[in-house]
Amino acid sequence: LTLSSAGGDIPSAGILNVGDELLSGLTTNTNGTWLGLRLSELGFDVVWRAAVPDRIGSIEDGVLEALNKVDCLIVTGGLGPTPDDLTREGVAEALGLELVPHEDTLSALRERSRLLGMDRLPEGATRMALAPPGATLIPNPHGAAPGLMFEAAGRLVVLLPGVPREMRDIFSSRLESWLRDRFHGRLRSEVHRLVLTAGIPESRLAEEIGPLTETGPGTVSVAFLPHQCGVKLRLTARGFRDRREAEGWLDGVESSLEPVLGAYRYHAPTGDLAEALGMRLRSARKTLAVAESCTGGLLAKSLTDHPGSSEFLLGGVVAYSDAAKIGLLGVPRAVLVERGAVSRQVAVAMAQGVRERLGADAGIGITGVAGPGGGSPEKPVGTVWYAACLGGTTESRTFQFPGDREAIRARASWAAMRLLLRLMDGNRP
Amino acid sequence: LTLSSAGGDIPSAGILNVGDELLSGLTTNTNGTWLGLRLSELGFDVVWRAAVPDRIGSIEDGVLEALNKVDCLIVTGGLGPTPDDLTREGVAEALGLELVPHEDTLSALRERSRLLGMDRLPEGATRMALAPPGATLIPNPHGAAPGLMFEAAGRLVVLLPGVPREMRDIFSSRLESWLRDRFHGRLRSEVHRLVLTAGIPESRLAEEIGPLTETGPGTVSVAFLPHQCGVKLRLTARGFRDRREAEGWLDGVESSLEPVLGAYRYHAPTGDLAEALGMRLRSARKTLAVAESCTGGLLAKSLTDHPGSSEFLLGGVVAYSDAAKIGLLGVPRAVLVERGAVSRQVAVAMAQGVRERLGADAGIGITGVAGPGGGSPEKPVGTVWYAACLGGTTESRTFQFPGDREAIRARASWAAMRLLLRLMDGNRP
After folding, report:
1. Among A153-157, A177-181, B188-192, B318-322, which is the least confidently predicted range?
2. How far is B142 from chain A (nearest CA, A)?
3. Residue B310: its pLDDT value, please?
């Protein structure tokens, strides 16, 4: 949910990326992402972005569409010397502008080709010096094609080369400060804050939080982003006088959410629940050992993804076969036979067994049916038992996780981690 | 430069990605790239792509703009249960369609929320069952929000969830074949074939293969795609009369490459080396046990990512601490003290120890420094010893892998799998 962010006075920006390779998916449009982030941070409301092929008509359509919507349009790509570089022509066509050679740029291009050992400027290259009369040409330190900037119909239009390094450098070194000057006083920068939750579905979270009522000098909005092991809340403060004021209001909103989120919230720089568990264990100076059946090493792998895991993880056992459960973990054969490998008793015996054998403070055991085979009417695919023990306390749970093998394994491993976090916190639901 | 690909009879496709986070650059638009690639491969001319914010008016504008240009429009994102999910409403507004509850979808959503332990369907969630009358709802195996497909003004409009995994699965499992049927005879497909290699760098592979000379009625080209555990070769046949003719020429090219590729090639439907090793072990009816230190469960996790892994993987041990190496694997304490934990002797003792303790045919042991801490002048970060044993043969290797923690762990695990594959094949270099 993003509450309406703005009165009409915040300048809007659009991005038009030109290139066949963007549409056929052979190249990821990193320019669009990068520019979106920089323009938002600068304080624009980025409301439109499109990719069009290297055709004059498509570029023309894209420009006209954009100028209906935005105060500032940035076009990338198609400024080079080859016949498929048609951005200048498409933009000029859309705006009814003529293109004339820019003398300083022509000289610079001639000098550049001389430095590269060519005896003359290749014919196509002269096109790179064409610009609408009165345009500002922006030198490109990393390539031949300069950027262009001009006003048309009360809008600012900027053309930048498509090579990411060239585009970024021109933006950061020159354009950004020009944009700040041109739209001075109207830009409203956004300040973001992420809050991580696990163990509560997106729809219930949205229901419990309800609409945000805080509006001071600006607005604070919340977006729900389903993510890996849970739901990320992104709080965004817009329209405040400065960053400090915005941070103050974000603090207020965050505190007001704490009663709802407390039980589900976790803290991890990367957003990963395994990192959160590792941080909790390290700060409590507790060690852990894990025993996995259906997750097959995923839990150990997740915990060891993060540097410093050797400080708390003593080791793990992947016990797929009954023999491994008996031999490596001391699960009694009688329990396996009577209760079956997917049972509370086996999950508990695995957690306690691996903890004892490795001399750890805490233990986790997971056993279940990840599928696609191996399900039965009593224990369908997705059925998982998991247990965590810490000190004298052992807790176990079962759940029938939805999804495919990958989802079931991931969800089982997150659920087991949440169970141990809960044991460590004492007060979680 | 892409030569004009089409007369007007090739169907055109457009992609509209909905989400504030795409415009503000907080999320990279991987859906747009992925869909562009798949639609191009399928034989569409992808001519338009745009990203718009989570606002009804913006979605409406985007749809109208697209339907001026394309025969098939795919919209992603904004189908979830929260109030910022507005794609259904925006599309309906643009096309003048009403939205009515789809009963089967409502039942499926109720069943799903019951499985997730909720006593009722949250209010917002019922919106996920809304669709224009007569639309086809496409079940989403990985999430709640279904896809939608319907005809409007002679165009095909498809709405897909924005979560990449859900979007991709719906596209691959259902939509692709429907699109093929709907635009039957007008699509001009390229035929691709992937050949998987591991253990040889891209530049050497390109050198050894040289330029492809085969050109018959069409052309076959090769692209080198560095990928996960090696380099994929993508062979592309273009301009052939039909798929069968193209496949015949691809067969010819593939055979001509075999003498160069044989030693490095592997076979796995998902492209994953772990799957290839699992398939080899299963077809040879051999069992495996693995012992990991620096890879921390990644090897076991990779092997168990694939269904049927219980047929060959008896189990694994993650032995981070010396105590775990001694207690769970029988690595002699004296060897750990004299040679250090990262040594040939320890890797071999881990491979043999885990194989014996679990009674497997084959064993793998990996020990190394994944970083960022733990390096020394003699054993810098990236130093890994790995060993594989099968029957009476044990082989071990060391390598100083480049990259960060994640890259080092992945590369070590692939190298160890290649070593065992080599032992199994007998004839690999």
Report:
1. B188-192
2. 5
3. 92
Which residue from B71, B38, B74 is spatially nearest to B189, judged by alpha carbons?
B38
Name the CA dihedral angle for A38, A40, A45, A50, rounded to a multiple of 10 degrees.
Answer: 50
How far apart (Å, rounded) are the C-alpha atoms in residues A44 and A187?
A: 6
Local structure of B227: helix, strand or coil:
strand
Running DSSP on this structure, what letter comes out for residue B143?
S
CB pairs under 8 A between A and B: 292
The answer to whether residues A161 and A140 touch, using CB atoms and an 8 Å cutoff, is yes
- Give the whole-angstrom CA distance, residue A89 versus residue A72: 19
Does a cis peptide bond (omega within 30 degrees of 0) precede residue B372?
yes
Q: How far is Cα of residue A323 from the mean position of the Cα atoms in its chain?
A: 42
Signed CA dihedral, B341, B343, B348, B351: sign only: positive
Mean pLDDT of B214-238: 76
In angstroms, the CA A76 to CA B352 distance is: 58
Separation in Å, CA of B32 to nearest CA in chain A: 7
CA torsion A409-A410-A416-A422 (nearest 10°) is -160
The token duo for A280 is 């909790």
Inter-chain residue contact B28 with A25, CB threshold 8 Å: no
**Which residue of chain B is at minimal alpha-carbon distance from A22?**
B33
- Residue B61 near residue B28, CB atoms below 8 Å: no
Specify the DSSP element, H or E, that contains A59: helix A56-67
Per-residue model confidence (pLDDT) at position A191: 83
pTM score over 0.80: no
Question: Residue B226 has what pLDDT?
Answer: 66
Separation CA B148–CA B305 (nearest Å): 30
Query: CA–CA separation, A296 vs A314, rounded Å?
Result: 17
Q: Within 10 A of A111 (CB to CB), how many other CB atoms are there? A: 11
Q: Give the nearest chain A residue to B126 (CA atoms).
A: A203
Contact indicator for B87, B55 with CB cutoff of 8 Å: no
Kindly provide the b/e burial profile for residues A17-42, where b requires at least 16 CB atoms within 10 angstroms of the residue's own CB: bbbbbbbbbebbbbbbbbbbbbbbbb
Q: How confident is the model at residue B2 (pLDDT cuts 50, 70, 90)?
A: very low
Q: Indicate the SS3 state at residue B254.
A: helix
Higher pLDDT among residues A340 and B226, named by residue:
A340
Rounded CA separation B68/A163 (Å): 30
Q: What is the dihedral of CA B9, B10, B16, B22, to 10 degrees?
A: -140
Record: contact A315-B307, CB cut-off 8 A:
no
Question: Inter-chain contact A327–B358, Cβ cutoff 8 Å?
Answer: yes
A261-284 as b/e, with b when 16 or more CB fall inside 10 Å? beebbbebeebbbbbbbbbbbeee
C-alpha torsion sign, points A7, A11, A16, A17: negative
Of B296, B303, B308, the CB nearest to A309: B296
Angstroms from A29 CA to nearest CA on chain B: 7
Residue B321 DSSP one-character state = S
Are B365 and B328 in contact by the 8 Å Cβ rule? The answer is no
Q: What is the DSSP letter of B11?
A: P
Which residues of chain A lie closer than 8 angstroms to B303, CB-CB? 296-297
Asked if B256 and B329 touch (Cβ cutoff 8 Å), the reply is: no
Looking at residue B123, its amino acid is E
A365/A328 Cα distance (integer angstroms): 13
Tokens 């041109």 map to which residue? A182
For residue A205, the model assigns a pLDDT of 87
Residues of chain A positioned with their CB less than 8 A from the CB of B304: 295-298, 318, 320, 370, 409
Percent of chain A with pLDDT over 90: 64
Residue with more model confidence, B87 or A80: B87
